[in-house]
């Protein structure tokens, strides 16, 4: 059974930091690209950070470049999102995504999300 379990969310003041974690099970983690998608009320879910399975390269939304860092530990089947200098507009439920595309099938898994609230 595929599972993605996010943790690490909470309430933080503007300018503060949080580290999110997403523990994966039920699939071969190292073969999947991993990403984080915040979903704020009234807005669409959008990618802020991604990490590929092939060479570990990363990509970030312009809004978080220099502040957020995505990393993965294939031995622990876990992907992380270090968030620094958080802003109130960063308030959202953060979802972990695992994705793999093959010539015959696409695989796309989501976690249940973890709430991040940036407020003074």
Helix content: under 10%
Report the end-to-end length measured between terminal Cα atoms.
Answer: 40 Å
List the secondary-structure elements in sequence, H or E.
Answer: EEEEEEEEEEE
Low-confidence stretches: none
DSSP, total strands: 11
Mean pLDDT: 95
Helices and strands: which structural class?
mainly beta
How would you characterize the largest beta sheet? 7 strands, mixed
Radius of gyration of CA atoms, rounded to a whole number: 14 Å
Helix and strand topology:
Elements: E1 3-7, E2 10-12, E3 18-25, E4 33-39, E5 49-51, E6 58-60, E7 68-73, E8 78-83, E9 92-101, E10 106-110, E11 114-118
Parallel strand pairs: 2-11
Antiparallel strand pairs: 1-3, 3-8, 4-5, 4-9, 5-6, 7-8, 9-10, 9-11
